[in-house]
Amino acid sequence: MVTTRWWLRRAGLGVLVIWGAATLSFIGLHLLSGDPARIIAGGGGAVSGSSEQILARINEQYGFHEPLIVQYGRFLGQLARGDLGMSYQLNQRVTTVIVDQLGPTVALALGAAVLGFGLALVLAVGTAGRPRAESLFSTLELLFVSTPSFWVGILLLTVFSFRLGWFPVFGNEGVASLVLPWLTLALPITGTLALVMRDGLQRALEQPFATTVLARGATATRLRLRHALRHALLPVLTLSGWTLGTLLGGVVVIETVFARAGIGQVAVTAVNGRDLPVVTGVVLVATVVFVVINTALDALTRVVDPRLRGVPE
Amino acid sequence: SGPSGGSASGDPVSGGEVTYLVDQTQLTLDPAVSPATVTGLVTRPIFDSLVVQAGPTRFEPWLASRWDVSPDGREYTFALRSGVRFTDGTPFDAAAVKATLDHVVDPASKSQYAASLIAPYQGSTVVDDLTVKVSLSRPFRPFLQALSTPYLGIQSPRALAVPPAEYKPVGTGPFAFVSWEQQKDITLTRNPDYTSPPANAPHTGAAYLQTLRFNYVPEDATRYGALTSGQVQAIAAVPPNRVGSLQSDRRFSVLKTELPGVNYNLFLNAKTGPTSDPLVRQALQAAIDVPALVGSIYAGQYAAARNVLSPTTPDHDQAAAAALQAYDPAKAGALLDQAGWTGRNAEGYRTKDGQELTLTWPYLALINRDQRDVLGQAIQAEARKAGIRIDRPNLDAGAYSESVLNGTYNILDSSNARADADILRFMFASGSTFAKGGANVSLSDSPQLDGWLDEAATTSDAAVAARDYALAQADVLKSGYLLPGYVPTSLVGTTSALQGVTFDPQGIAQLYGAWLVP
Amino acid sequence: MTPPDALLSVRDLRVRFTTRHGPVDAVRGVSLAVEAGRCLAVVGESGSGKSVTARALIGLAGSNATVDATTMTFEGRSLLSLGERRWRRLRGARIGFVLQDALTSLDPLRRIEDEVAEPLDVHADLGRRERAERVRSLLGDVGIPDPAQRARQYPHELSGGLRQRALIASAIAAGPSLVVADEPTTALDVTIQAQVLDLLADMRDAGTAVLLISHDLTVVARMADHVAVMYAGLVVEEGPAAQVLHEPVHPYTRALLAAAPTLDPRGPAPTQIARLAPPTTGPGCPYRSRCALADARCHGELPALRATGDGPSLARCWHADAAEPLPTPAPRTVGTTTSGRRVVLEVDGVSKRFRVPGGGRRRAVDGVSFSLRAGEALGLVGESGSGKSTIAQIALGMLGPDDGRVLLDGASWSELREPDRRPHRSRIQLIQQDPLSSFDPRFTVERIIGEGLGQPSRRGAAAHRSRVVELLHRVGLDATILDRRGPQLSGGQRQRVAIARALGPEPEILVCDEPVSALDVSIQAQILDLFDTLRRDLGVALLFISHDLGVINRMCERVLVMKDGAIVEEGPVGDVLHTPRHAYTRELLAAVSADPATGRTPVRTGPTSVPEGRPT
Amino acid sequence: MTTVLHGEPPAGLPPVTELPAARALRRTPWLGPALALAFFLAVCLLAAFPDAFAGDPAAIDPVNAFRDPAPGHLLGTDQLGRDTWARVVHGARASLALGFGATALAALVGIAWGLAAGLGGRLVDEATMRVADIFMAVPTTLMALLVVAVLGAGGPSVAVAIAVSLAPGFARVVRVQTQVVKHAGYVQAATALGVRRRGVVGRHIVPNVLPPMLVLATMNVGQSIIAGASLSFLGLGPQASSSEWGSLLSDARDHLQDAWAPAVFPGLAIALTVISISVLGRELRLRFEGRTER
Ligand SMILES: Nc1ncnc2c1ncn2[C@@H]1O[C@H](COP(=O)(O)OP(=O)(O)OP(=O)(O)O)[C@@H](O)[C@H]1O
Ligand SMILES: Nc1ncnc2c1ncn2[C@@H]1O[C@H](COP(=O)(O)OP(=O)(O)OP(=O)(O)O)[C@@H](O)[C@H]1O
Ligand SMILES: [Mg+2]
Ligand SMILES: [Mg+2]
């Protein structure tokens, strides 16, 4: 089974990865050109300058004059206490900024994940092993995978919101405002997962055990749902890292297209405005989410596939 | 002030909620800190000012019922309206005025713009509860205009006492702040006890609208779609291409006003690189047919600028346009030849001593709006015809501000709204460089220009100021410190149901008198 | 010939597959009958259509298959034109099916109990407790110890034998009257094989009809009442087991029986299936191109299945009556003349432990010592996992022992660093357990063999190539395969290429790890002959690893018996196989001997059967 | 008597009515890959010699803004009257360069990284793979934002950004593959024959590790093109005046109401190019797997 030992090891690795990501963004962002004090003073893009007096104050306040190693130490110390520092621009604690924006993003990503997975499931189970349906739907899925989602989003928005007025054009209110973003974010996931799932189903259906199941008098549906599906889910779980990456990354684009508030918007604005603490914060949150969900899914894989349980790592 | 929208009329009705989509966002709601235009729009309903600008040079009472200026022009004594309260219950008095002005100039508040508006401010004295005396270090003619802007709106001392992270805007205005979600929306609600409208207000008492919501939607198409699909009642920055179809649709109307201040211009670095040669700068003016480009990109809705200042700015000089090189490709070629850029390389760009004529124009996506990127592309294409390569590296805020600081650009674009020609000093005075907190990105360094601008700011004689400003306007055009772009124009789209929206002299929409046709 | 009381009766079954490359006639006219309480065995070489026949009987020949037959009845009802729904009612309930691939026929992601109970879930509606009880009793019935615990485990946690039994338990769960078992013992150890066969025999004795498919004649000899021999989709000979196995008529059956190595002390019979042509298509006898008796008639006309001279058997051969008696085995040529020669490889007290998953270490080899003399063939037997391959690796110097050492020609070997070992590598070569995986998939046969001959110089390219060809000739192959890659070779060819490569450096010692385990008996025989020649003519010493006692008997003078990493018995082959001293050796031998209780004569044909009357 | 016992498809969903195109593709399995190859080669040709097929993509002609597709302007014009066909053709180079550049960079780094992990000792393996974990944990778009934040926006840094997020994926696959190959029978066989380690690595390990990477790389090219377009769309891409497909779409989105062509054709160009690359990649994979499985 999934042992305590395994969990401990994974927790250790998780902390390592999070520390690594934190360090990576710290180093990366301190390599940047430009005086952070000026960026803070300039409010991210004013063409007018700032007085020395103000700059000195900012340097003092944020400790920019200290050696990098001291700043790094303080950064890690804060991090250990769950403090991501002050945003350079938003006049807020980074944790506040992120916590405030987490809700809409989670709703978006979670819904899209469920939708993407559900659609893929229906497509794969419905068409695996049926050559006609398969050729038709796998072409469709290929299209989903190959079309940039921001473009799909724009087209959907134009048709369904601007022209037909079925869905709100912008904003975060209600489920109606989520329909198009969900769909847009889900399509590439559906495409990939359906292709992978169908492949897995097919492989499973070609295995000797599939014939055995039929030889026991089971129906084709039973074979698909009770036996083959689990096998098809394994590669999907293996792809969870990819899916998660696509989701978190997609959120950035989708929130821009649909003018939704959320972490993605925060990230883009922070990068454009060089709001380093916020960028670091978003990266760390993404990393933590990634580590936690990936670990959970790995554990799930071990539950679904008993063959892995004896294997370390 | 602009026209009131819509054709439907009738008596104003109370109540209702208006969602107004804006194309910009701000980092703080403190108007004393945030320089953004949108901050003006959003905080105008919250804050009353001491005075109201009723005409180009005319000021009327608002929170100040009266004021006196000392003969040397360095002391202003304001008599304040009585019985006014901030929406947090704090009484409005001389201490509040002092607190607000001190807050603006306090380095701790990191104010850039508001502080620059009252640069000579020395301090305030509370004479009595309802009298306050403000001292300036030198005579400062634009002082009252500055006081009339929302950026110097009078704030509740109680609200200013909290740490910046917890700041909430509290004023005496017709609306009170309810909530703000960064990068998303701001909600205001009617102040039922409002008693202090400006002297020129269309009505008195509380505002009509119950709730005002400002949503940040940067995408032009989305804002437009939200209006036409009926999701919202007003949008800022209607895409110029769409103005025609909105106007022809009875369900909508478009309110339009040209903003005062510095036009959207391309400022040319007169210190370094090829643009340090005045001939090259003038050639650039001659090489690009700005009116044609602006006309086409903005569908005739924005006027092409022929001057540094917009026509609605006090002391704008119509005649200065003559100092500008008119579009004349042949002349541009001749000027460049004269400047020594006589060679041509394989790509058709001019060269001098093997060096290609390349001008760097940093691009910062963060501040892009009004399709300035598209105008930029058109300008690039036009410049290419003249053999000038314009390079537009896509920079982030850090690299951009570094580039501005170090002067490693040849062109920088910006506009700057202000209903006073004193803005020229901010843009062109030799001491007003970026490093010193100014915006002189042309890096102009002319004692003569400095002289005119200083005199205009300190004189109490309006005629002297007007003459000085006219000289300055002609000079900056002639020296090729800039290539004028377009006149920033506020295009507000509303549903026909939204009535009574007006513009103040700065081009800021006023929502105090707005109401919804039921 | 079809008994009237047959449970299952099929006449003229034909199966055709539609494939991209045109139709494939996998079964071309097969008639079978099985009675309750009896066992029919179908034998035949790989690809002869055995499995397809079996799958056609439960309507699962495949979606690209067209099945037809003149009659096909089961329990008195015709199976022809049965709808999918009715098929499902038969499958699992009336006919239990044990698929060929025992190790992969259980869904690896489900617990044993769910797999075993699936026919019950489908056909009967049992309560939770009742179901659990039934599963437990079924697992008990098939001889799985501790059924309650096993039921909760997953397939991979069970050994091959247990898995096979669980599969059988699932096949009989709903109490079918016919069990079709397709190769139920391939890939199993001899000891486990015996257990599975006993189980099937018990079921037969309890009244279930058993259709047994196998290419292993020992298995058939133990179980079958009746035998049908298939070749190229046709039954070529059919009759009572004793008759077919003792007095075979068809040349193919006779060749098949003759080729199998045995434990008979007289040694092997001369190889009979010398020509390895594939089954021939077109009119005429499909066996004609391999048959010594083939004449014009065989080429022109397919013989019918007809009664042969005296017995109740039927055979499909024009020459069935002209058959000569089976040749008797020649005396053993394997002598004990090597005892005085020099020791070329000395393994001295070698131990090896491996890290095992979940922490800890496991002893794979435990204090093993032996020596190998020039020209000697030393056998190494033992069940799977006993450490045979590990010893081979250590002997080769591919793996360092934890304790002990290996000496090559008296000089240190296992203690050297690889660069020091490299100059001497040519003296000891390995033929790996799985030849295909030992070929770089990108390499042609020429490069594979050539790699052992060093880089060809520019001028020596022709010489290099002719040396490769010479090696191929040595192993009975010719230059036509030089440009093929590993996957394009047949099993026998692969094995021979692997041998040719090992011969390239002209080694003094050959370590052969299960060199024939994956091969048909016919190809097996050829390869064993080659090894014999090498040893006799070139004085190469052989360390011969196998779990097949028949093969060891055929090849070796001395044998080591391994269990759990240690050598438990050692001595001359004759002594060890016929007067085993260690209990484990006896167990090994018992597993391959016939069951005296059934009274059926153990035939001399089974690769692992023991002559009659041996103590077990 | 002939009875078809099992000729029909298994029970379950009813068969889906098939589009003629889908049927043609199914009946002639080479057709899809052939079309994909033809399209892809055509795009490559356009990218290689844009000037031979289209005019100046930057030439503005405000009078002819927002024209619908017609002879003269095959794909219509945009807001400045620029020819959409010319812009799409010239954008092909930027987009393909982005896709292939990013993938090539990622493959190069990833392969070296994975080989080091697979062939080095336990310690090297652990260390390099933990670093890969860190890089994998940051989602692609965020990683790209980070890289762009460090290197500044623009074509090369977008390529680097994508490469940085792809490289660990390559490294992992290469590492696993290396370990498989390292323990393969033929590596042992070569060692037993006395082949030097350098020879073993050079002749057996590397050549057997690389072919699956080619397949992986093909599949990544398409995704890189999309990622590049997305980053351009977010305003992190190359200069606005470059006609990279993503930035074309970004430009066009504000004018969907005025003209559909500039917003539709670059999108189609991306989708079709990525599809054709995916189809080719899939074909490559089938061939590759087919060869080793046979
Ligand atoms: N679904 C199928 N499509 C096409 N050909 C098939 C199919 N199934 C089996 N065959 C072919 O039918 C022939 C008989 O196969 P079958 O599995 O019955 O052999 P077998 O006698 O069981 O061999 P083995 O001993 O190796 O199991 C083979 O040539 C095989 O390739
Ligand atoms: N590299 C390895 N790491 C861990 N365990 C190993 C390794 N190689 C072999 N073992 C274990 O050592 C034991 C002996 O294995 P070995 O391969 O020598 O058995 P064998 O006798 O050759 O079996 P078979 O007949 O199945 O080939 C087995 O339990 C095996 O799992
Ligand atoms: Mg078979
Ligand atoms: Mg072994």
Automatic annotation (TrEMBL), chain A:
Keywords: Cell membrane, Membrane, Transmembrane, Transmembrane helix, Transport. It is found in: Cell membrane. GO terms for cellular component: plasma membrane. The keyword Membrane applies. It holds the Pfam family BPD_transp_1. Signal peptide: none annotated. Residues 102-301 form the ABC transmembrane type-1 domain. It comes from the Bacteria. SUPFAM superfamilies: MetI-like. InterPro entries: MetI-like, MetI-like_sf. It is a multi-pass membrane protein. The chain crosses the membrane at residues 12-32, 106-128, 140-162, 174-196, 232-258, 278-300. One of its GO terms (molecular function) is dipeptide transmembrane transporter activity. Its main location: membrane. PANTHER family: DIPEPTIDE TRANSPORT SYSTEM PERMEASE PROTEIN DPPB-RELATED. Belongs to the binding-protein-dependent transport system permease family. This is ABC-type transporter, integral membrane subunit. It comes from Pseudonocardia dioxanivorans (strain ATCC 55486 / DSM 44775 / JCM 13855 / CB1190). The lineage of its organism: Bacteria, Bacillati, Actinomycetota, Actinomycetes, Pseudonocardiales.
From TrEMBL, chain C:
Residues 10-257, 345-589 form the ABC transporter domain. Its main location: membrane. InterPro entries: AAA+_ATPase, ABC_Ni/Peptide_Import, ABC_transporter-like_ATP-bd, ABC_transporter-like_CS, Oligopep_ABC_C, P-loop_NTPase. Residues 595-616 are annotated as: Disordered. The keyword Cell division does not apply. It holds the Pfam family ABC_tran. Its EC number is 3.6.3.24. SUPFAM superfamilies: P-loop containing nucleoside triphosphate hydrolases. The keyword Hydrolase applies. One of its GO terms (cellular component) is plasma membrane. It is a peripheral membrane protein. One of its GO terms (molecular function) is ATP binding. It is found in: Cell membrane. Keywords: ATP-binding, Cell membrane, Hydrolase, Membrane, Nucleotide-binding, Transport. One of its GO terms (biological process) is peptide transport. NCBIfam families: oligo_HPY, PRK10419.1, PRK11308.1. Belongs to the ABC transporter superfamily. This is Oligopeptide/dipeptide ABC transporter, ATPase subunit.
UniProtKB/TrEMBL annotation, chain D:
It is a multi-pass membrane protein. Keywords: Cell membrane, Membrane, Transmembrane, Transmembrane helix, Transport. Residues 92-281 form the ABC transmembrane type-1 domain. It is found in: Cell membrane. The chain crosses the membrane at residues 30-49, 96-119, 131-151, 157-174, 213-239, 259-281. GO terms for biological process: transmembrane transport. This is ABC-type transporter, integral membrane subunit. It holds the Pfam family BPD_transp_1. It comes from the Bacteria. Belongs to the binding-protein-dependent transport system permease family. InterPro entries: BP-dependent_transpt_permease, MetI-like, MetI-like_sf. GO terms for cellular component: plasma membrane.
